[in-house]
Amino acid sequence: MNRVRLLVLNAALGSLDYSVPEGMRVEPGSVVVAPLGPRTVTGIVWDHGRLPGDEVDASKLRPLREVVAVPPLAAPLRRLIEWSADYYCARLASVARMVLSSGGALGGPTTMTEYRLTGGTPERMTPQRAAAIEALGDEQGTLRELSEIAGVSTGVLRGLVNQGVIEPVSVSIDRPYPQANADHHQPALSPDQLSVAGTLVNAVEARKFEPFLLDGVTGSGKTETYFEPVAAAIRMGRQVLVLLPEIALTENFLTRFEDRFGAAPVQWHSSLKSKERRRAWRAIADGSAQVIVGARSALFLPYANLGLIVVDEAHEISFKQDDGVRYNARDVSVMRARFEGIPVVLASATPALESLHMANSGTYTKLELPSRFGGAQLPAIKLVDLTVEKPAAGRWLSAPLIEGLEARLEAGEQSLLFLNRRGYAPLTLCRNCGHRFQCPNCSAWLVEHRLSSRLACHHCGLETKPPETCPECGEGDCLVACGPGVERIADEIAELFPEARIAVATSDTLGSPERAAEFIAQAEARAIDVIVGTQLVTKGFHFPELTLVGVIDADLGLEGGDLRAAERTYQQVAQVAGRAGRGAKPGEVLLQTRHPDAPVIAALANGDRDAFYAAETEARRDAGAPPFGRWAAIIISSEEEREARAAAVRLGDTRPHLDDLYILGPAPAPLALLRNRYRYRFLINARRSANLQEALRGWIEQQDFPPGVRVGIDIDPYSFV
Ligand code: ADP
Ligand code: ZN
Asked: Residue 706, Cβ neighbours under 10 Å: how many?
């Protein structure tokens, strides 16, 4: 090959052709550095004929500079990049950048410094130093890691380095990960679990594409069950990817994984330090990383030898990425499995309607775990009609819920209250003039956070101190909180039960893996009586002493009225209810609602999942909504209101007129201002027969937009704001 076409990582450049200098070996997928003007660019050698570009005369081609020392991206991954760009109307380069997302990974091997004891003693021994030396033993790690082990500051350790008691050692950054042992500790599976595990093990051994829906009630032991095909893949020397929706869930998973396999899996998520990212990326690419547990971005990594993908809690909306390349990791994981020719397992107690439809129509193989492991019973769900059981003014807990909490506190059992609202109150206003505190950058109210004494915008991250006086009328001490957030519920419980140990569990309080781990440890040690949390606590957690779940406002999710509102309410409530009664003691769930007759609320109370899914399926069919039709959204935004509106109107004027494509808009988006950008929206509803992506591309590409205008296309959107 003496002439190659590169997919250049810079989206504006697209593809460029180069010549291959004598002696340089490249193949499709090779990552290379090429000259561009006075600079260089990184690119991927692409398959001949699969990447459009300008036909440049051979004599004008410049030679490639070098080949980066990483394995070439394999053909299945190149097909996945092409498919994702095509399906999500994204640029190839933007998708490819997600594959090479660890910038540092492309550099050559380097070393890092770790520290260990030398065996010497310091000139001056203090009790603190003695304790630190004792605790360190033969541990080796970065100063930060050692300071955690020794329970002293890094400053104390540096003092010991200066005295020669601790010495630096240079280690390769790419040191191997500990090996997982497929037979470390195999639990005895129940007959149901055994049968599901057997099917999945066979699929891994068959080495061919097969999508599974693992539909198992909360507490049925889905994790223990899918660990068996994971073990099978490890025995075959193949890699496994387990996708989890939240970092907060990883901690629990890591412990269980280590119990089962004797070593931790390799992690991939956004809070990894850059060195860890690089180490993980390279181990994934050379095949030495066996099992990778990660957030959605782990889906695009260059696995050398993938044998199985598991998507746990597959219904979770956090698998949908809403910026950059707007993809849904649940759907892309099925495509990756197809290109790789391997099985993929979507596990959930409350599958997405789309997934269930695929299973019922035979496209996915359905595997069921209909009962809880070890004889635990699913909790009974009771409705509390708030129009009858009215909480006191400015209070949110009804009498039955208060009684339930009291009984649990007396019995020494745990309770969990669920409200999907961070902070103290969703709206703050001035008692004197009625001024409402709004984000200057977004069309959204500022949310009061009392724990951090801030007013915060949950859309752009803006935070300010609550003002002493009203900025509108100048009155002092006049702010009133409207409506409840989890912090306010926690206050209410503290007032009712001053003795109770209460924990607020949200992304504000459990944002890092360490804090999540600490929370879990405390809850397991029963140092917490009442957990008040957002959707973060609805899934994954297994606290045997938790016997009461209270849903503060079951109607909240139905308010926005988007396409999936009922489904999401069903999933959230069923999941949070699933936290109750997982141990020996039975659980109880109280749902506070103003609409006890709403179909989704009634279905929850009756435990009638099938009826809910059947009714919801019919509603979707009538509306031409997924899986029967498809939706897409186009968001036009600009810092200038006029410019955004003009661009949207102009695009609207050139809309395609097709029988199987309905285009609504343009209209100001529900979030009309976001991060200082004004937003207009089109919603597109397509019949199955329409070629949605082709129609959108043809429509948008023929428009010239001013430089200040951004056009975002969202295929299969989950967010309708
Ligand atoms: P799910 O994810 O389906 O809600 P989990 O996988 O969390 O359920 O399992 C619920 C609990 O039962 C966990 O504590 C798990 O360790 C335990 N468990 C499940 N299956 C087994 C088994 N075969 N042997 C021992 N413990 C099990
Ligand atoms: Zn904002």
From this structure: 10
* Atom 22 (ligand 1) nearest CA: 189
Residue 59: burial class (beta carbons within 10 Å; 0-12, 13-18, 19+) = exposed
Residue 2 C-beta-side C-alpha neighbours within 13 Å? 5
Decide: helix, strand or coil at residue 264: coil
- Does residue 36 contact residue 21 with C-beta atoms inside 8 Å? no
Q: How many CB atoms lie within 10 A of CB 450?
A: 16
Q: What is the chain's alpha carbon radius of gyration, rounded to the nearest angstrom?
A: 28
Q: Which of 189, 183, 146, 178 is nearest to 254 (CA)?
A: 178
So what's the pLDDT on residue 275?
Answer: 79
**DSSP letter assigned to residue 131:** H
Pocket test for ligand 1, best of 348, 542, 571, 575 (most atoms within 8 A of CB): 542
pLDDT in tens, 548-585: 999 999 998 887 667 888 999 999 999 999 999 988 89
pLDDT tens per residue, range 610-632? 999 999 999 999 989 999 999 99
My answer on whether omega of the bond before 627 falls inside 30° of 0, hence cis, is yes
Atom 19 of ligand 1, nearest CA residue: 221
| Closest C-alpha residue for ligand 1 atom 15 | 221
Q: Supply angle C-alpha 170, 174, 176, rounded to 5.
A: 105
Q: CA 257, CA 243: separation in Å to the nearest integer?
A: 14
Say what the alpha-carbon torsion angle 188, 189, 195, 200 is, to the nearest 10 degrees.
Answer: -90
One-character DSSP codes across 241-252: EEE-S-HHHHHH
pLDDT at position 248, please? 64
What's the CA-to-centroid distance between 441 and ligand 2, angstroms?
5
Atom of ligand 1 nearest to the CA of 187: 24
d(CA 531, CA 483): 19
Q: pTM here?
A: 0.90
Taking a C-beta distance cutoff of 8 angstroms, is the pair 106, 97 a contact?
A: no
Ligand 1 surroundings by CB, under 6 angstroms: 187-190, 193, 216, 218-224, 373, 542
Read off the amino acid at residue 122.
P
What is the distance between the terminal CA atoms of the chain, rounded to a whole angstrom? 49
